[in-house]
Amino acid sequence: MASRSDLLQTAQSLVSAYNSLDIEAIMGVRSADCVNIILPASLGFQAMNNEEYAAFFSRNLHLLKDFHLTVHDTLVDEAARKVSMHLTSSATTAIGDYSNEYMVTLHMTEDGRKIDRFDEFADSKYSAEFLPKLYEFKAQTDKANS
């Protein structure tokens, strides 16, 4: 059975991994069967397994500089092995400053040391406005460099 301490340590390890933008550390906190779901569905993302998420994140990793997550609130459900967090992020990109807000729920393994499912609710209005501009910039840059 996962302890509160184990669940919180795993959640903090994930936050630290994102703050360092270390894809190996980010993936290392996930179980082999972890599924990442970016919500709401209106953003158009499909559920991603580890391989898909690593490819998605790696493709976009270089677009963010000085990325930082701040945890504002954390709720732990030991019996269900879940940790929910309210987070904000900040970063610098080639098209301007990036800041987003998230509610995440991490569903943990039996021992609480890995994440089996990662539900990520992002600020849909901000994401729908900013991300297409960032991805368009990336596409133009990729095209110019090829």
Explain this structure.
By secondary structure, the chain is an alpha+beta fold. The protein contains 4 helices and 5 strands; from the N terminus they run H-H-E-H-E-E-E-E-H. The N and C termini lie far apart (52 Å).
Task: Output the keywords.
single chain; 146 residues; alpha+beta; 5-stranded mixed sheet; 4 helices; 5 strands; 38% strand
Helix-strand layout with pairing:
Blueprint (H helix, E strand, L loop, with lengths): L3 H16 L3 H6 L1 E10 L10 H12 L3 E13 L4 E12 L2 E13 L6 E8 L1 H22 L1
Parallel strand pairs: 1-5
Antiparallel strand pairs: 2-3, 3-4, 4-5
Instruction: Specify the biggest β-sheet.
Output: 5 strands, mixed
Query: Which descriptor suits the 3D outline?
Result: globular
Averaged pLDDT? 91
Uncertain runs are none
What order do the SSEs take from the amino end to the carboxyl end, as H and E?
HHEHEEEEH
Determine the number of helices (DSSP H or I, runs of at least 4 residues).
4
Strand elements, count: 5
